[in-house]
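Today's session is about reading a structure prediction critically. Students often jump straight to the picture, but the first step is always the sequence itself: look for stretches that repeat, for charged clusters, for runs of hydrophobic residues. Only then move on to the predicted structure, which in these notes is written as discrete structure tokens rather than atom positions. Here is the chain we will use throughout the hour.
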Amino acid sequence: MKKTEMLLAGAVLGVAAVAQAADKRYPIAYVQSVEITDPSRRTAWEDKDFLNCDDVVLTQEDVRYALQHMRRISEKSYDPENMGSTGCKGSALVTFKNGRVLAMGIEPTGRISTGEFDRKMNPTASPPGFYECHPCGERKMALLKDALNRADERRLKRLEAEGQMAPGEAERRLKVLRASRDKP
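Below is the predicted structure for this chain, in token form.
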């Protein structure tokens, strides 16, 4: 009985380890440097009344966290119609000790695209990679929530100033929007 319990526990731990493992081609232990090339870039999806990309900035810590938690997905799954997009994306170059360079585009929602280069910045034979990182998205959501609240405040105050909304209505709607984002 004891041997069966040990095998079962080992199997459960093995499944848990596989579920938590990031892409093994990019081990965090072999990262030599992380260079943020574009902390926040706007795409065609950006709508400043919804979210100002200047409010959400990619950091080196975000990149390292993404390397530890990103999961490979298909290009079809990466499509903005199948996976939410904010219209904001940060870019980074990650150099590994073996000279390989990984160019990463990371959105605050956890959408990640990658391309591999050699040390001379020539593309390698590896195809572009598409990833999702739910923990990354959750981690950035606090920052994103604040940015969305600021965007709502800008939009509602502008509408109130233009007379398209009754005085005091902007503040009431802002409270409702913030309360809806704070719900789990």
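Discussion point for the tutorial: Confidence is low (pLDDT under 50) at residues 6-20.
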